[in-house]
């Protein structure tokens, strides 16, 4: 089955991806439940990857049940008649968002959410956009224009010409960029850069950006696609900064890892162009009843099971133990491996891309899945679910200690 599957992928899906899968000897995934994925041979893999999607694990029963019930009722909307699930899901989402974010627009992916946020910025008169080095906001053309890594941008140039990148946490560069742009400015940033290698932006830097946006009568866009929905130990990473954005991007864990679902939430002022004319932006599949049913059930689980608190405590435990292992290794090997973490968004910085690849392969051979960092190839990321057993944690720690000796 494996050879046949890879040949089909090579011939009809993507040649380079099939080639990499073959070189890495990646197994064929068959099923998943909780924190584990099972391959075609029945081997279980501890899923610490998933790029932030599976905060509730795989196939959470309450989310699956909600989706099944909606499929039996009405899986897709007519797009003409009134969709009651859209009404209830919109309220449920904005109710857990920072105050004054009163309107929600559901999309299919984080990149789609970024595109809508940029459109809202433009519709509100922002002619210039300021983004941050190390950022990642997606790979569609607009999102790519505010994503920093050159390797992703170069083949598709020219991108948006009105984007300025400022060095992460550099206050003078930030002020200079706003001054250079003039007029209304949109600022976009992730409070915690996930694909950037798990870097938390500086408190003063984000507050200065918010202040400068207010002064310019611009738009502060907060990308919580990966850092939001309990992942970093609070419902939203921006909560720790005491900042209310004008527009916030939501994704990854919004549907509990069951069906694609993302969203944009915004203040009434920022959302005004769409309130005046809903036809300015639309999506055939965005806000489908099955996606919204998953989102509603996911939000219920996040609240009822206090997942933010679980993520905070569990993330601190994991980071502390990984730090102990890394420190012991650094002392004996005169190395500089370091751990950066915010809740269950954890980065293992091994200094070079080649070593990150070796660490990934070594953990895979011990049946631990990880995520690479799209904007920082030297960092391997762990984005596990908030429901891990002591046995699964022990497996991770043993695998990490063994893997370090092979990089």
From TrEMBL:
Has keyword Lipid metabolism?
no
Matches recorded under InterPro entries = Aminotrans_3, Aminotrans_3_PPA_site, Class-III_PLP-dep_AT, PyrdxlP-dep_Trfase, PyrdxlP-dep_Trfase_major, PyrdxlP-dep_Trfase_small
**PROSITE patterns noted in UniProt:** AA_TRANSFER_CLASS_3
A Pfam family per the record: Aminotran_3
Q: Which domain of life is it from?
A: Bacteria
Requisite cofactors: pyridoxal 5'-phosphate
Keywords assigned by UniProt, alphabetized: Aminotransferase, Pyridoxal phosphate, Transferase
Mention one GO molecular function.
pyridoxal phosphate binding
Q: PANTHER family annotated for this entry?
A: ACETYLORNITHINE AMINOTRANSFERASE, MITOCHONDRIAL, AMINOTRANSFERASE CLASS III
Q: Tell me the protein family, please.
A: Belongs to the class-III pyridoxal-phosphate-dependent aminotransferase family.
What protein name does the entry list? Acetylornithine aminotransferase
């Amino acid at each position: 089955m494996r050879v046949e599957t890879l040949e089909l992928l090579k011939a009809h899906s993507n040649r380079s991806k099939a080639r990499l899968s073959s070189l890495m000897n990646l197994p064929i995934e068959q099923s998943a439940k909780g924190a584990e994925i099972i391959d075609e041979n029945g081997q279980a893999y501890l899923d610490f990857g998933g790029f932030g999607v599976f905060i509730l694990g795989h196939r959470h029963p309450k989310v699956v049940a909600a989706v099944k019930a909606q499929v039996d009722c009405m899986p897709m909307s007519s797009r003409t008649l009134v969709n009651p699930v859209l009404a209830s899901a919109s309220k449920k989402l904005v109710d857990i968002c920072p105050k004054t974010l009163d309107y929600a627009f559901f999309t299919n992916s984080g990149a789609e959410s970024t595109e809508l946020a940029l459109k809202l910025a433009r519709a509100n008169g922002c002619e210039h956009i300021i983004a941050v080095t190390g950022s990642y906001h997606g790979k569609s053309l607009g999102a790519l224009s505010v994503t920093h890594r050159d390797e992703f941008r170069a083949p598709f140039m020219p991108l948006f010409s009105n984007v300025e990148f400022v060095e992460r946490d550099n206050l003078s560069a930030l002020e200079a960029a706003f001054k250079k742009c003039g007029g209304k400015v949109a600022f976009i940033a992730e409070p915690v850069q996930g694909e950037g290698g798990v870097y938390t932006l500086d408190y003063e830097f984000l507050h200065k950006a918010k202040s400068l946006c207010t002064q310019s009568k611009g738009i502060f866009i907060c990308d919580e696609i990966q850092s939001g929905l309990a992942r970093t130990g609070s419902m939203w990473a921006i909560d720790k900064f005491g900042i209310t954005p004008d527009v916030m991007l939501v994704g990854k864990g919004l549907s509990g890892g069951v069906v694609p679902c993302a969203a944009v939430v915004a203040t009434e002022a920022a959302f005004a162009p769409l309130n005046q004319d809903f036809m300015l932006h639309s999506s055939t599949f965005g806000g489908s009843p099955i996606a919204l049913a998953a989102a509603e059930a996911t939000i219920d689980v996040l609240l009822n099971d206090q997942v933010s608190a679980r993520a905070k405590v569990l993330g601190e435990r994991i980071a502390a133990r990984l730090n102990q292992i890394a420190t012991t290794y650094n002392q004996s090997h005169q190395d500089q491996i370091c751990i950066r973490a915010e809740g269950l968004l954890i980065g293992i910085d091994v200094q070079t891309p080649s070593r990150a690849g070796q660490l990934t392969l070594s953990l895979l051979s011990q049946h631990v899945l990880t995520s690479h960092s799209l904007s920082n190839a030297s960092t391997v990321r762990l984005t596990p679910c908030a429901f891990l057993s002591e046995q699964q944690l022990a497996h991770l720690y043993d695998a990490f200690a063994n893997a370090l000796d092979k990089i």
